[in-house]
Amino acid sequence: MASAVPFLEMNLPSMQGNSISQDRLLGRLDELATIGPIDGGGSCRLALTDADRDGRDLVVTWMKDLGLEVAIDGVGNIIGTWNVGTGSPVMTGSHIDTVRTGGRFDGNLGVIAGLEVIETLMAAGLTPARPLSVGVFTNEEGARFQPDMLGSLVYVGGLPLESVLDTIAIDGAVLGDELQRIGYAGSAPCPSAAPHAFVELHIEQGPRLEAEGIQIGAVTGVQGISWQEVTIAGQSNHAGTTPMSLRHDPAYIAAEIAVYLRQIANEYGGNQVCTVGKIDLHPNLINVVPKSATLTLDVRNTDEKILCEVESKITQKIAQLATAEGVSISSRVLARFEPVEFDDQVTGLIEDLANHHNRSVMRMPSGAGHDAQMLARVCPSSMIFTPSVQGISHNTAEFTHTDDLVAGTNILMDTMWALAHLDFTPQTGMK
Ligand code: HGY
Ligand code: MN
Ligand code: MN
C-alpha cells in the first residue's frame, strides 16, 4: 500500500523549486574518497583505523560548519542534529567505514546526502517541523570487527555497549582501545532515544535496478544474514613425503566447504547466496601440509526458514567432511540477523515521491546489510536505492551516475520533509 501523502498540503521543498547542489554533493564525495585512497579511485577505511578517524574528522567538520549539534556516543556513532522544530528527529545517515577495496559511494552517499539535504533546506530558509539528524554509524561493514552494523545495533539497544567494547578485530585490536586511540569514545548515551523515523539513501550494490532500467529502489526490507568463522585443525606435515592416504589436510576441507557452499546456493536458487570470502592457512607455506585453516561463511536469504535449512545442511556437510579427513572443526557465529521488513508507509512514501520526481521506481529487498535494518527495530524506517553500474560494489569500480545521485538525494530531501510532517502508527513489528 503506497502512502496517501497529501503532497500539495506539504509544500515539499522540491515543489518550491529547491534542488540539492550537485557540485557540493559530488565535491564532498570526491573529498571523502581522498581519505584512505587506493588504486582504482576507491578507499580503504576499515573501522576505527587512522583512515576511518580522518574520514570521521572531515565529516564532523562539515557538520560543525553547518552549525549542527554533534554528539558522539560510546561506540563512536556520530550524530549531527539540526535542532529545529519540536519532537524527536527525522534521521538519515549511513556509514563511512569501508571494506579493504571500498568504492566511493557505499555508505558515504547516505552520510553526504543527509548533510546536503540539511544545507539545501537551510539555504532555502525552509525549517522542518522536526529536528533533522544525520548518523555516521560505527563499523557498518563488519570487515574488521564483527558483527556488521555493529554501531547502529548498539545505537538501538540490540547489543550492550560493554560487551561490544571487548570485541577483537581480525588484526587482534580491541574495539574499545581503538575507539580511545582515534578519539571517538564518546559520552553520548547509547542506546539512544528512538528517532521519529529513519530513511537511508544507499547505492543498490547489485544489478537489479540497472538490469530492469529502473531509477529508484523503494526498499521493502533486508535479507537474513548468517556469518560464521570455521576453524579446521589437521596435521601439519611435509608436502613431499606424506602419502595422500595419511593426510589430514585442513586446506583440502576448506576447499571442499567452499565448493559445497556454491553447490547448495545453486541447488536452492532464488535469493540464496553463499560466500567464502576469507581463508587463512597456517603456516601458509608452499611445502607444508597446513596445520590449520580458518575460513568465513557468509550465507544469506530473504526467507528465514530457508536460511535456517541451508545453515543446517552446511553444518552437517562440514561434520561429514571432517570425519572423512580426520580433522577437527570448531566454529563461531560472527553475525546472525533475521530478515527485516521496513515500514510499508515509509516505503510507500518513497515510491510516491519517486513518481512525484518522475523517476521510475520499484519495490525491492536489499541483498546487503544496512544500518536502516537496525533502526527499523525502534522507528518506522526504509531506504532509497540508486542504481549501481553493472551491479558492482565492494570493489573500487563501484559507480553510480551523477543524475541518479542527484535524484536520489532530492527524493531523500522530500522524504525527510514529509516524514517531519507525518505522524506514524508504526506498522512493522518494533522490537
Ligand atoms: O555485508 C554487508 O551486507 C554490508 O556491506 N555490511
Ligand atoms: Mn553500505
Ligand atoms: Mn558495504
Describe this structure in words.
There is one protein chain. The protein has 431 residues and is of the alpha+beta class. Helix content is 35%, strand content 21%. The protein has helices spanning 7-10, 22-33, 50-65, 108-124, 150-155, 161-165, 175-182, 208-212, 250-268, 304-325, 344-356, 372-375, 402-420; strands at residues 37-38, 42-43, 69-72, 78-82, 90-94, 132-136, 197-203, 216-222, 224-233, 237-238, 273-275, 279-282, 288-289, 292-301, 328-337, 340-341, 361-366, 381-386. The strands form four sheets. Strands 3, 4, 5, 6, 7, 8, 16, 17 and 18 form a nine-stranded mixed sheet that branches. A hairpin with a 3-residue loop joins strand 1 and strand 2 (42-43). The protein starts with 6 loop residues before the first helix and ends in an 11-residue tail after the last helix. The model has no long low-confidence stretch (mean pLDDT 96). Bound molecules: (2S)-amino(hydroxy)ethanoic acid and manganese (II) ion (2 copies). Residues 95, 106-107, 140, 202, 370 line the site of one manganese (II) ion. InterPro entries: Amidase_Cbmase (IPR010158), Bact_exopeptidase_dim_dom (IPR036264), Peptidase_M20 (IPR002933), Peptidase_M20_dimer (IPR011650). Pfam families: M20_dimer, Peptidase_M20. Residues 221-321 form the Peptidase M20 dimerisation domain.
Distinct small-molecule ligands in the complex: (2S)-amino(hydroxy)ethanoic acid, manganese (II) ion
Uncertain segments are none
Quaternary state of the chains: single chain
Report, as a whole number of angstroms, the end-to-end distance: 22 Å
- Rounded Rg: 23 Å
Q: What's the CATH class of the largest domain, please? A: Alpha Beta
Count of domains: 2
Total E-strand runs? 18
Number of helices in the DSSP assignment = 13
What is the CATH topology assignment of the largest domain?
Aminopeptidase
The gross shape turns out to be elongated
- CATH homology superfamily of the largest domain: Zn peptidases
**What summary fits the major beta sheet?**
9 strands, mixed
- Write down the overall mean pLDDT: 96
What class, by secondary structure content? alpha+beta
CATH architecture of the largest domain: 3-Layer(aba) Sandwich
Strand content: 15-25%
Helix content: 25-40%
